[in-house]
Write a structure and sequence with these properties.
By secondary structure, the chain is of the alpha/beta class. Helix content is 47%, strand content 16%. Strands 1, 2, 3, 4, 8, 12 and 13 form a 7-stranded parallel sheet that branches. Helix 3 runs parallel beside helix 11 and helix 12 packs across helix 13. Bound molecules: 5'-O-[(L-methionyl)-sulphamoyl]adenosine. 5'-O-[(L-methionyl)-sulphamoyl]adenosine (MSP) binds next to strand 2, helix 1 and strand 12.
Length: 503
Amino acid sequence: MEKFYVTTPIYYVNDAPHVGHAYTTVIADALARWHRLLGDDVFFLTGTDEHGDKILRAAKKNNFDPQDWVDLTAQRFVSAWRELNISYDYFIRTTQEKHVQTVKKFLSKIYENGYIELGKYAGYYCVGCESYKDESEIVDGKCPDHLTPLEWLEEENYFFKLSMFRDKLLQWYEESPQAIQPEYRRNEVVSFVLRGLKDISITRTSTTWGVRVPWDDRHVFYVWYDALVNYLTAIGYLDDPHFSSWWQNVCHLLAKDIIRFHCIWWPAMCMAAGIDPPHKLFIHGHLLIGGKRVSKTRIQQGQEITITKISPIDLANEFGADAVRYYLLREIPLGSDGEFSYENIIRRYNDDLANDLGNLLQRVTTLIVNKLNGIVPEALSECQLKDQALDAIEVAKRSWEGFALNQALEAALELVRKTNAYLESKEPWKLKDTEILKDVLGTACEALRIATVLLYPAIPDSAEKIYERLNINSFVGNHSELKWGLYASQQIQKTDPLFPRKK
Ligand code: MSP
């Protein structure tokens, strides 16, 4: 049994979750479900990033005590993920004591190893990004991402000696070409590192809302270096003997906005603490609305506005969790940016789920009920549709492995379409010979079942309902389901369409 440890970034709790957060979380969930289906031992981590000035200011602005604010907002993420059927194994919060202790232990280790020292820092800071901005990045005195004015900060800080890791990082990128994907993102990271790395300030004295530096309690750790450590907390860096076996199989998912933190800073810190850099990082693109990223806070005419903020809970209520999940996974090739639109959620749902899958389910079950007293016949053991189903399984396996999630789902849909075409060519509604009729419907039903299993990571609730309609009790998310000719003879009933068309 292989181990698969998948993580999302931990999201800031300055505000409620939006569909951009849902995007990464749904991808991670689908990957986790796929690996469980393969029989892997899976640990899926998500959670919330609760320290730093951005959160403290949000709490103050809303007249909340900071801890009450983060408790409330973290709960909004938990609720959103419940609505979207997210099967995380652990929800981490950086204000948890276990995390605070892990941060202290991990950063103390780096300090003891001689990679952290005291220094002075002065520079322009963006609270939205929670990071200092290089002169070259500043546009008209503002943050290029948030378009907000920057603040000048001068502090005595502890510095992580990132500059000492240039060669070690380059060697790691070279020796582990698969570690950062897609490849063009890896190349971007390599060129950045080749230009040279500066030491980075990792503590603050200007705020108290963070983890205290264990060797100097005037300082708290800068929120990013507290946050990244969450990936270690959850798998027991403090004291769990299984820690290494999970860490060796980690897969971090993130969008391109936080690539440097994850692909440069984080691996260097792991090396400095004496553990391996992360096994795999996959960087996806941004969901956009009208070409702009969902959802950034910007200042317009002195007012802070959040553009294009769409709540995952509203989406799930309006369209159903599976329609939203399917759209997010099927519509945009993983890695590219993509325009988000309500019209396309409906189009994808109607075309693929209502027309193709729903129609096949309805046809097969109705014919079996009407013509064979509801008893599911056996599938042919050798036929073209079986070969096509086995091909679809192979394509899906390769595609999930290569993070081509849209292609994995397309392989399932292709099988659905071929099964519909098979029915059209065999015309079982006209067949008089019961034996032939049984072969055709048994075969179509089995192809439908395989397609359902392949779609399960994207539409878990509907996939389980299809299994119920086929009167198969075994859980659909079981890897042994990906074989031909598993079920026959069970009794099924007539039912309403599972995917009524949406307008
Ligand atoms: N708290 C940090 C992450 C620390 S991880 C150790 C942070 N939080 S965030 O709330 O801003 O989340 C950023 C992440 O949310 C992105 O990297 C991405 O995974 C997801 N997304 C946020 N907006 C998104 C889009 N518009 N499109 C795609 N993903 C988006 O950064």
